[in-house]
Amino acid sequence: MTMGNTDAHAERGYSASKEQLLKRLRRVEGQVRGVEGMVVADRYCIDVITQISAIQAALDKVALGLLDEHAHHCVMGAADGDQGAKTQELMSAIGRLMKRG
Amino acid sequence: MTMGNTDAHAERGYSASKEQLLKRLRRVEGQVRGVEGMVVADRYCIDVITQISAIQAALDKVALGLLDEHAHHCVMGAADGDQGAKTQELMSAIGRLMKRG
Amino acid sequence: MTMGNTDAHAERGYSASKEQLLKRLRRVEGQVRGVEGMVVADRYCIDVITQISAIQAALDKVALGLLDEHAHHCVMGAADGDQGAKTQELMSAIGRLMKRG
Amino acid sequence: MTMGNTDAHAERGYSASKEQLLKRLRRVEGQVRGVEGMVVADRYCIDVITQISAIQAALDKVALGLLDEHAHHCVMGAADGDQGAKTQELMSAIGRLMKRG
């Protein structure tokens, strides 16, 4: 996951610089802590579940940013002989994301 | 989300006591921090994505535990006249989970 | 899946009469045949995948309609002693839907 | 979606020849018809939902096969100047699959 600088990514939608990814992940961490607080405070279940759905959506976005980086830098940048194996590996990762683990 | 004691839940698979939910959420919080560390350390994208899939699976389990609690205590326990609206609300929450936010 | 008449369901969002479910399923069947035609005609992959996403969204809606029916008629209508087992069974089904099989 | 012959794909896991894709899609079509029959026969909701989960899993596999083909032939095979836009388009398609339409 050696990623380029921010400028190079500005033009693409899903892609994200390392800083952007970390920012999103820290926000996710805060959201998870928020859900813990909701459970402690006996908040209404449906509201907690709605918040969990929002976290899942945020994690999907982080994963898509990583996939985009990976496709650009590791799959396309791979030597011709390695591209098949790299694409295979990428599809397995997408399959796990679609099935959520 | 006023939930009963642990004993009452031991017999059911998805259900979870408040303590169990908090334990799982704290573990998820730790997993998110772990992913942040992987990004900082420039770990291989596919490994980071695999870890994100694992977090999403863990959050799905938390959500199912909450849904189960909610179905038992808020939907079935509702007055007859409220059960329709409560079920509707439950289905909307399930729909958001399936679409991930 | 013994379902009531259409009138009784008109007021709820996800619920659907047997006729509505069949109509949606026949439309899904037509969409699948449409995708077969796209593959035969060598249509652009991304367009085929977009169409598959649309089919999955339609199937999710059918599943939510069934869940809603089931929650109303089989889970809440169950004898008190059976509601625990019925809710458990419902949660397992939701878990499979979230993981897609 | 101009795809190569079967031999070329035998070595890869997710990829599929045109014939294999059509075979899988026809099986999905049959599964959807099977679900229609289950609804007509008033079969138990949970069994119908389980069958729908199986169809979603089968469609996910078809989509992954198409993504794999696309990544190999359209994204990597694209002229250097087009690879950015092609990857972007691919990520959008994956995003729709993850959100199911």
Describe the structure.
4 copies of one chain form a homotetramer. Chain A is mainly alpha-helical and 101 residues long. Helix content of chain A is 77%, strand content 0%. Chain A contains 4 helices and no strands. Chain A has helices spanning 6-9, 18-40, 45-75, 80-99. The radius of gyration of chain A is 17 Å and the shape is elongated. Chain A binds chain C through residues 98-100, and chain C through 98-100.
Task: Offer a concise description of the structure.
The first copy, chain A, is built from 4 helices and no strands. Chain A has about 100 residues and is mainly alpha-helical.
Strand-residue proportion of chain A: under 5%
Radius of gyration of chain A: 17 Å
Instruction: State the shape of chain A.
Output: elongated
What is the helical fraction of chain A, as a range of percent?
Answer: over 70%
> Which pair of chains forms the biggest interface, and how many residues does each contribute?
A-B, 49 and 49 residues
Distance between the termini of chain A: 20 Å
| Class based on secondary structure composition and strand pairing of chain A | mainly alpha
Look at the structure and give the mean pLDDT of chain A: 85
Which parts of chain A are unreliable, with pLDDT below 50 for 5 consecutive residues or more?
1-13
The profile of the biggest β sheet of chain A is: none
The count of strands of chain A amounts to 0
Number of helices of chain A: 4
Order of helices and strands of chain A: HHHH
Q: Give the oligomer, counting copies of the same chain as homo and different chains as hetero.
A: homotetramer
